[in-house]
Records
---
Amino acid sequence: MKIALVGYGKMGQAIERQALKRGHSVVLRITSKNRDELTVAALQRADVVIEFTNPEAAFHNVSFCLNAGASVVCGSTGWNAQIPEVEAMANANNSGFLWASNFSVGVNVFFEINSLLAKLLAPHSEYRPTMQEIHHLQKKDAPSGTAISLAEQIIDSNSRYSSWHLGNKTIDDRLAIEALREENVPGTHEIRWESEVDEIAITHTAKNRDGFALGAVLAAEFLNGKQGIFRMKDVLGI
Ligand SMILES: NC(=O)c1ccc[n+]([C@@H]2O[C@H](COP(=O)([O-])OP(=O)(O)OC[C@H]3O[C@@H](n4cnc5c(N)ncnc54)[C@H](OP(=O)(O)O)[C@@H]3O)[C@@H](O)[C@H]2O)c1
């Protein structure tokens, strides 16, 4: 498979390493410095685009690629409100699109456990949830896209919660997400359900970026040749 990498920073480079290991080739590498090389002609050399840039650049990059007829795997976080618009563009252009707040296999299993725990505790109002995420100092968005996904899963699975806010105290139906930034942390997410008598905590700790990168390559392999909107659940069959 021939891959175009839009965004060639920490993630783009980790994705390239995983892609090469799996026998794929990288035919285009775009950063903020050579954006003019992202052209329809250049995209025609690739089977799939993998976009990992930032919240400000993602919408433009993804729209451009989808309108050029390319299929796109996107991992940029912090632009959730615009995702339905690009999904409509993918359908209109008969392209494929797969966005995930987190591509790691472990996190996608963790998502299922999170939903189940929120559902099991729904009848037990004495348990109150809080969430904490920790990332490296360069991360531009807070809370993380993964934390937002985890919060949305709790809201969908437990009718006592209807929104989330940045903070360390869950207030009424507003789930707290505390976002901490520390040196060299690839991504840690913890959800605690606390009652007067006990506490249940689930934690996912990424040790490095390789899990996200491998997941993005698996998603590109899955998306290659397909049209429509997909999620990591489709890739992993969960
Ligand atoms: N979904 C997941 O599993 C997952 C996992 C980890 C990270 N992420 C997300 O992935 C994104 C990238 O993370 P990262 O750690 O790789 O960031 P990074 O190291 O800062 O790399 C960002 C890359 O995007 C390029 N870029 C910036 N503006 C651009 C533009 N307008 N057009 C094209 N390229 C542009 C940068 O170029 P310059 O170097 O020239 O500025 C750089 O190559 C973030 O949103 C992060 O939250 C997602």
---
Amino acid sequence: MNLGPLTISAPFCQAGLAGYSDRAMRVVARRRGCPYAVTEALLDTIMLAGGEGLRKSIDINDDDHPVAGQIIGSEPETMAPAARILAERGYDVVDLNFACPVKKIKNKSRGGHMLRDVSRGHSILRAVRQQLPRTTLTVSLRRAFDDSPDNQGALFELIDEAWRLGFAAVRVHGRTVEQKYLGRADWRALRELKQRYPRNTIIGSGDVFTAEDAVRMLDETEVDMVWIARGAIGNPWIFRDARLLLQKREMQRGGESLKSPFDPSACESLSPPSIPEQRAALTEHFDIAMQIHGEQLAGRRMRKMGIKYARFHPDAHDVKKAFIEVRSLRDWQAVLTRFYESNGGGVWPASTAADEVNDDPAMQTCET
Ligand SMILES: Cc1cc2nc3c(=O)[nH]c(=O)nc-3n(C[C@H](O)[C@H](O)[C@H](O)COP(=O)(O)O)c2cc1C
């Protein structure tokens, strides 16, 4: 599929995830089939202040393309130059975050609050486009601010302006801003959106926890690409599996009927990552995180990542407990030596495992 001038080799994307989707997570996923990835939301004012904040915000290298840099902010005057920094530093796409359920700050809004301050959202879209006439731009939104009848037009007003300005895609999370991460994402709303904009690129988001969910979202909503968020944390194999299922679906369709729905029994042929595969991913992930953040911060970030990886281990409970204690590279290696030396198979996570990430405080704010 295409995103503006870019060719993306499969309709899946690793989401922006504050506190997670750094270059380490992106590269580990890419090596396992992730075709396109997004940074965590970068606060425009921090980037513009320069110094350490800017240095930490920008992290890109040759192994990490195509990649979108995502910015969040409340003023056109700061969002536009911040977008320019990302484009100049080599990000292939700039994504504007109008989706995060951040709190209002001093009467200024950012993230999902654009859905109830459409004129501010319009000003930001226009200012960024004016600053970057040729850059591939996308915008991330939620399906509405809330479910009140007078808010339902805001999404379309923002999207219509994005198309008018030549944005390459919009990404829509099927929850309202008020919902934050509670309740179900409304896939029907995604389907209706695609029907409304059949010729534009829509990236669908919300409740994609498995490779099967990703392919089912393509089928049920007909969006052009699926944004894989919580389902990718500690599961870089989700991209390899989603590609495999998509190939199977294409083969199925080539047979009887073009419209035959995705057959979930295809999933039976997927196997969970083996213990050696898990060990390799855990080792790579820590190595890259350490290069980026240094040992101490990598230890902190990787602790929560290890907990999510643990769900594929047959002794998930004990492995998770061991990862919780990790502070250093030595601790990390000790967990690998204790639990990841065998050549055995992994297991599919318990169905409740995906919910655990809801406890992450980063989720409440999307702050970076
Ligand atoms: C811990 C956490 C951090 C997130 N950070 C970002 C972010 O920086 N940028 C963004 O666009 N969305 C962010 N999101 C939202 C996700 O990308 C995604 O839209 C949302 O989780 C819905 O998808 P899911 O239900 O499949 O997880 C975050 C979500 C979580 C759970």
---
Amino acid sequence: MHYEGMIIRPPSEANSIILQVSVGCSYNKCSFCGAYKDIPFRLKDESEIDRDIAFAKRYCTGQKRVFLADGDALILPQASLENIFNKIRANLPWVNRISLYANARAVRSKTNGNLLVLKKIGLDRIYFGLESGADEVLAAVRKGETSRSQETAARRLVDAGLFLSTTVLLGIAGADGSLRHARCTAELLNRIEPDQIAALSVIPLANTDLGRMVNEGCFAIPSAETITRELRELISCITIDRVQFMANHASNYLPLSGRLQKDKQKMIDIIDAAVAGALAFVPESQRAL
Ligand code: SF4
């Protein structure tokens, strides 16, 4: 397979065929994100994608899922996406799930009809970076969106019948804004009703504006205990049912996963035990993005 730059994919796509259809992120301004900082965004040539599909046809017959990289593959023109999906279906008929990352801008580039067509020809799952439900936090991290615009975009994915996995970022509001960030984010998630919620904890990367702010003393990352209390507040305030909740990403201080509302009390009990000192947090040296 032909890859450019660092390939990033959700943990649940670990066994997927990673088909890179674009390089970088077309937005690339979030203050905490260092994934594609030095890579100008571009769509990959059709001939490169064709070669990778031909490779997968020959060597990836045991992998039943495809993940389209990079950071916001839904931003590709509709005709290009339909072309790629149709080629995947024709050449890799054993594939039963196609997923990609999308941000709100990419969703706005598609009509509801476009989304329905993509679902019909194979798009199954979208990973959507929500980060926060608090407008001041979204502004501070330069997400380029408001809670309302995030809600509108994410709801359109749900209404199109796509499986929606949302990512939220713990610790990004600092210690003072921590609990409000958790409550606003839970309220936004309750309105969106995603299928899956993945919580990550912020790590200030050296190549990001957030990393520079931390180095210059302009922003302090909250302690493990504060971030864990934030996680507790988030889980407590989520009221939607039958949503998969995962905080088992390597960036987190306390690995957790379960289904809300069924496992809510169990997860809160684990958090309370950790905050009381009965369970150890993941050491800083073992955290990673
Ligand atoms: S967080 Fe997502 S939208 Fe923001 S710069 Fe990174 S890849 Fe792009």
